[in-house]
Design goal:
Layout lengths: L1 E7 L2 H16 L3 E6 L4 H6 L3 E4 L4 H6 L8 H22 L5 E6 L4 H8 L3 E5 L22 H29 L8 H6 L2 E5 L15 E4 L12 H6 L7 E4 L8 H14 L4 E4 L15 E4 L4 H4 L6 E3 L3 H9 L4 E3 L6 H11 L13 H13 L1 H15 L4 H14 L1
Parallel strand pairs: 1-2, 1-4, 2-3, 4-5, 5-6, 6-7, 8-9, 8-11, 9-10, 11-12
Amino acid sequence: MRVLLAPHGTRGDIQPMLALAVALRARGHIVRFSIPRGFLAWVGACGFEAVSNGVDIEAEMRSPDARLNSVRWMFGRLRDQTTQMFEPIARASESADIIVGAGAQLVTSSIAEWREVPHAMFAFCPCAMPTAAAPPPTVRTQTLPPWMNRLLWQVGAPIADLALRATINRGRAALGLRSIASTLTHVSGSCVIIAADPDLAPPGEDGPESLVSTDALVFEEGRELDPRLDAFLNLDPSPIYVGFGSMIAAGAEELVGQAIAAARAVGRGAVISAGWAGLDRYVAQSDDILTVGSIPHRAVLPRVAAIVHHGGAGTTTAAASAGVPQVILPHLLDQFYWAHRIERLGLGPRALPVSLITADILTDRLDIALNDAGTRRRAAALGPAIAARNGADAAVDHLERLVGSA
């Protein structure tokens, strides 16, 4: 089976598909990636062929003009990126037996239709698909009644159509395909696979008929730890971890300063992950502060005392699997869903949007994560079950069935 994997988005959208690629390769399937150009070297180093989808999403998010807190800006960028991706993904799809999208990907279902091959779409959070269990990702409030969540999906569908349908239809016209009437129906019309841990993110019971679920897709990184980091993790008491992944907060310098002040206020050292925001630029190295680049979460997070992060699907799952309390500072979209789930499960204190955080507030949140016995007990109890799960093999089963039934 020749598989084109075409996830689009940040690292949190690419890394789960690497887990899928490894599982596909283990079954003897041939995998090719079409991805944002900033990830080409990483995916290539893992032994997979990778070509650019025409977008440099890291450069766009680092741009001075980026407005990550603006839904209008995000929809505008998604329109432009969708236009850019049609031709590169069409070229990359030659000879594919199945085409697989993930993340902010609106092109792959059209390319699969054009190639007359099956299509599957992966999402890493139940709130990516319409159910009564959660509102659309653009809605921050997570405590609405089910009927309100469903209503918001119904109201939001025409807005998404207005914002994106014309862009998709122009790309489809270039391929000789007829126009679509609904963006959401188009995206969810083929097989949709929600790959998320069932304890952290139980699937809604009223999703589209095309929806199936697997456990989270976990990419096992075999990197050895930097000796400096390994030694720092042996501090007594254990340090905390602070990292915001691909998020670029408007006040990154102030944010990392607040995190360091809070860590010191609770008597802990801190491992600061630079991320796309380049937090290391604002940190003076000292005995109690260590800045790092990308790290293997499974090797590092179980050795820290608490984890402060943005609430991405991958980081939330990795933190929970480590059995360590987490403090989430959500920036956008599904991060508010994950923050609510962690609070509801008692694995960390109530989250607060990153724009509202101060050193004092973060100190209070860290104090709960470090010293509340119930929080620490619940995190430690749930961690092993989450760590034991990986949905990659089940996901391959779904893809093989799709191709076998085509």
